[in-house]
Design goal:
The structure holds 2 protein chains of 2 kinds. Helix content of chain A is about 55%, strand content about 10%. Chain A is built from 9 helices and 5 strands, in the order E-H-E-H-E-H-E-H-E-H-H-H-H-H. The longest helix of chain A has about 35 residues, at about 110-145. The two termini of chain A are about 40 Å apart. Chain B is an alpha+beta fold. Chain B folds into 4 domains: about 1-195, Arp2/3 complex 21 kDa subunit ARPC3 (Orthogonal Bundle), CATH 1.10.1760; about 335-440, PAS domain (Beta-Lactamase); about 450-525, Helix Hairpins (Orthogonal Bundle), CATH 1.10.287; about 535-693, Histidine kinase-like ATPase, C-terminal domain (Heat Shock Protein 90), CATH 3.30.565. In chain B, a hairpin with a 5-residue loop joins strand 11 and strand 12. The relative contact order of chain B is 0.05. The chains are: A alpha/beta, B alpha+beta. At the A-B interface, helix 1 of A face helix 17, helix 18 and helix 20 of B.
């Protein structure tokens, strides 16, 4: 199964705006999908599809900020580009704090929109990549025995083999064996790599 | 008496007091003296014989005039003062004492009786003056009073030895002698000396000369006529000669009214009596008694109509003068009130107007006035209306009011309000009277107030637009976004190989459509923001409501309001100014939004509905679901500067109310039975268009 195509989700209550943006994105070789209301968008939302959302700030049934909040609550990590009729600074600050990629003023120029979409695409890719890496680490961590996991924690904490053996009530040699297996299972060669991986996996010493 | 008072006022010190002390005695003394002179004059004119009375006896008239002029409680002083004069005079003709007493008693009786009668009936001076009063004066003093008094007076000659059988003859002599005095001398004294001065102007030198010449001519004509007449008793020319003084007598009456008439009568009486008693006259018959009787009857008969004619002429003249004065007063008052008076006689086509009226119209003083000229000075735009007004005034016969402008010769315009009414005779409009009132200042003030009102209304619209700027920007940015993205998409697609032509076509269609949409938004805004003159047009209220809600669309959406329209079909159009009416609707909807700021979004709906009310009334209701109005708010909502909003100016509803008022409608605020407030706007349909200037 091939990876789904990057899609720009356009949410605007104005059908003419939806059509125009969708044509522009299409002409720039993006796949675009339009929604007339936030409700429609939320109902059909599939977080697994890579993509970003271009959302009008002012819409019936709740505006763009509300949609952003609801997306965040549902755990979907979708980059959002807001479109607004007015350069309302407090609103844009709120939107950016909540993780918006960009806040564009209507009528939006094609270059600005496409640049924002490109940024959103990159952000989405990064997020997806990092989500993929974390998943791989987690899978490797799951292969460790409880003893090897314990050793990992101690290593990341910067302790020497002798100290770990003391802590765990065993001999230094046994710790060396566990440590070697653990490094192999995780595909790590140096302690520095291991520490970086542990950080990424959210393992705190 | 009056003279004393004047002197008393003019000279300070002791002298006036002495004069004043003497004043009480002075009038009776003067009366006494006049009584004596009157008697002497009677003797001088002459008596025919000792057996009859003096044919003309002034003392009684003197006494009568004095009594009439004096207060009643002092009459006894005058009567007492006259007694010595009477005795003195009668002793000269050697009258016996008893006769003197009876004669004095009857003299006093006629004077008192006449004075009482005149006071009772005529109440106050002027005792003559009008035809009615002069007739009453003649009736009372020349008929009633002497006729009664003569009953006693007739005894005087009997006491002097006259036959008792001659009583009727004595009565008649006594009566006529007195009647003649009251007819000839009485009016003269009362008019010339007494309080009976007419308000006519005192005689000027030419008038005085005219009067003197008339008097001299009258004396000469009378003397000649009677001198000649005496010799022609048998000839057929006697009546012609007898009437020869008449034109002069009439001339006196006509030229000088009552004064002239009474003067002429006195002159004729004296001349005739003097001629009759001292020389030959046409009344010479064998019996002197009959001669005197004939002469007296002739003089009484002459004097009554002449006196009445004089009084009538005075009355007419005074009425004329009063009319003239009131007309002048009215013209003056009209001119000071900036009002021009005019009338138009339809039959003759004559136009008359006051000088001020002419200056109001900007027409030179001596230019002949015609309806065409007045039309010509009217402002070209107002001419038709002026003509129509004039026509409806003559047709309808009721008061017509119209306002029009006059183009002044020195440049500039003047606003006049015309008020006219036709006076009809037998259904034919004969005369239109009217006024022109200068209302330029009022009009100017009205225009200025109107301009200010428009300015404020415009500022309020601008401020509303400011409030809505975000929403309006969004409203405009939607089509612009679509246009821009479609255009840029087309450009990108054109660069593609091969270009996707059908999609480009769709994009261009959208661009065209969205451009129109943006133009519409701008058009709506332009209407609300521009400052142009108000224009009167037929407005479809439903369409106006849809357009207003369209303008507010983004604001409603952004503030999470829902607007429900419930519009009745087939409503009559409203004659009015669409921009101003839209301003009212905008205000009402925005007020409804503000009223629901605290309402949960689920209930934030505004209902705008229209209904036909009555025959042509259109009722628009803007209802919200807010908290409703507090009683104090409801009462003061339309007051300028009253506001419940933290940053409100308090002018919105005040201006709406003014606008609606100018459209002849009503705007009311009330609470909904189911909660929230409702604004009800009632306007009249086009069958009753309102002129909004």
């Amino acid at each position: 199964m091939s990876e789904p195509e990057f899609t720009v989700f356009v949410v605007d209550d104005d059908p003419a705006v939806c059509r125009g943006l969708s044509r522009l994105l299409g002409a720039a070789a993006y796949r675009a999908q339009t929604f007339a209301s936030p409700r429609d968008f939320l109902a059909q939302h599939d977080p697994s599809i890579p993509g970003c959302a271009v959302i009008d700030l002012v819409m019936p049934d709740g505006g763009g900020l509300e949609l952003q909040r609801e997306l965040a609550l549902s755990g979907a990590d979708r980059p959002i580009i807001f479109l607004s009729g007015k350069g309302d600074i407090p609103t844009s600050v709120r939107a950016m704090r909540a993780g918006a990629v960009d806040f564009l003023t209507k009528p939006v120029g094609g270059d600005a929109l496409l640049a924002a979409v490109r940024r959103a695409q990159a952000a989405d890719a990064r997020a997806r990549e990092s989500r993929g890496a974390v998943a791989a680490v987690a899978a490797n961590l799951a292969k460790l025995t409880p003893r090897e996991r314990e050793v990992l924690n101690h290593v990341v904490a910067g302790r020497l083999n002798k100290q770990i053996a003391g802590d765990l009530g065993t001999v230094e040699k046994t710790i060396k064996v566990h440590r070697g297996r653990m490094m192999r299972k995780l595909g790590m060669r140096t302690v520095q790599d291991l520490v970086r991986l542990a950080e990424r996996a959210g393992i705190r010493p | 008496m009056g003279e004393g008072a004047v002197l008393g006022r003019g000279v300070p010190g002791m002298r006036p007091r002495l004069l004043l002390l003497g004043k009480d005695a002075r009038a009776p003394l003067l009366t006494s003296l006049a009584y004596l002179i009157g008697a002497e004059a009677a003797f001088l004119v002459g008596t025919l014989s000792d057996t009859i009375f003096a044919p003309f006896w002034p003392p009684n008239v003197v006494l009568f005039c004095a009594l009439l002029l004096a207060p009643a409680h002092r009459w006894w002083i005058y009567l007492l003062a006259a007694a010595p004069a009477h005795i003195l005079a009668e002793l000269q003709v050697a009258m016996p004492a008893a006769e003197i007493a009876v004669a004095f008693a009857t003299n006093c009786l006629v004077a008192v009786l006449n004075a009482v009668l005149v006071r009772r009936v005529l109440k106050a001076p002027p005792w003559l003056g009008t035809l009615k009063r002069a007739s009453l004066y003649v009736l009372l003093t020349a008929f009633v009073g002497p006729a009664i008094s003569a009953l006693g007076g007739a005894f005087v000659p009997i006491l002097g030895g006259g036959a008792i059988a001659s009583y009727p003859s004595f009565w008649a002599q006594w009566y006529l002698s007195n009647a003649l005095g009251f007819l000839t001398l009485g009016p003269i004294v009362l008019i010339w000396i007494g309080a009976d001065r007419t308000p006519l102007s005192p005689l000027s030198m030419p008038r005085l000369a005219e009067a003197s010449m008339l008097g001299i001519a009258l004396v000469i004509v009378c003397a000649l006529a009677f001198q000649f007449g005496a010799g022609m008793i048998d000839s057929g020319f006697m009546p012609a000669i007898l009437y020869s003084p008449l034109p002069l007598i009439l001339a006196c009456a006509i030229r000088f009214g009552e004064r002239g008439a009474s003067g002429a009568v006195l002159v004729v009486t004296i001349v005739l009596l003097w001629l009759a008693l001292n020389h030959a006259s046409m009344f010479i018959t064998p019996s002197p008694e009959r001669n005197v009787l004939a002469l007296q009857i002739f003089l009484v008969g002459l004097s009554i109509p002449v006196l009445l004619l004089g009084a009538a002429i005075d009355e007419v003249r005074r009425a004329e003068q009063a009319t003239r004065e009131s007309e002048q007063g009215m013209q003056l008052a009209a001119a000071s009130a900036n009002i021009g008076l005019w009338y138009f006689d339809q039959a003759s086509g004559r136009f008359w107007a006051t000088g001020h009226c002419r200056s109001l119209l900007g027409i030179a003083p001596h230019t002949p006035l015609t309806p065409a000229l007045i039309q010509q000075v009217a402002h070209p735009e107002d001419r038709q209306a002026a003509v129509e007004t004039m026509r409806s005034a003559t047709d309808a016969g009721q008061e017509v009011v119209n306002e029009f402008r006059v183009v002044l010769p020195e440049g500039g315009l003047r606003w006049l309000r015309a008020r006219a009414r036709a006076h009809r005779e037998e259904g034919q409009a004969l005369r239109v009277t009217g006024v022109f009132m200068d209302i330029t200042a009022a009009k100017q003030a009205e225009l200025e107030a109107d301009l200010q009102r428009r300015e404020v209304a415009h500022l309020m619209r601008v401020s509303v637009m400011g409030e809505l700027s975000g929403a309006i920007a969004h409203e405009l940015n939607q089509p612009l976004t679509a246009i821009l993205s479609n255009a840029q998409a087309s450009r990108l697609m054109l660069a593609g190989k091969p270009p996707h032509l059908s999609t480009i076509g769709d994009a261009i269609d959208d661009i065209v459509h969205e451009s129109k949409r943006a133009g519409d938004v701008i058009g709506r805004l332009h209407g609300l923001l521009k400052k142009g003159d108000r224009k009167l047009e037929l407005v479809d209220l439903n369409e106006l409501i849809r357009s207003t809600i369209g303008l507010l669309h983004s604001e409603l959406v952004g503030r999470r309001f829902r607007a429900d329209l419930d519009l009745a079909e087939k409503l009559p159009p409203i004659a009015g100014d669409a921009v101003q009416l839209q301003q009212v609707l905008l205000n009402l909807v925005m007020n409804a939004m503000d009223a629901m700021a605290a309402t949960p979004p689920a209930r934030r709906s505004i209902t705008v509905s229209t209904r036909l009310r009555g025959k042509d009334g259109v009722e628009t209701v803007v209802a919200d679901h807010g908290q409703g109005l507090a009683p104090a708010e409801q009462a003061r909502a339309f007051e300028p500067f009253f506001t419940t909003k933290p940053h409100g100016l308090g002018l919105g509803l005040a201006i709406c109310s003014t606008i609606v008022g100018l459209h002849g409608g009503q705007l009311a605020l009330a609470n909904n039975p189911g909660g929230g407030a409702r604004a009800t706007l009632t306007l009249q349909g086009r069958r009753n268009p309102v002129i909004v200037t």
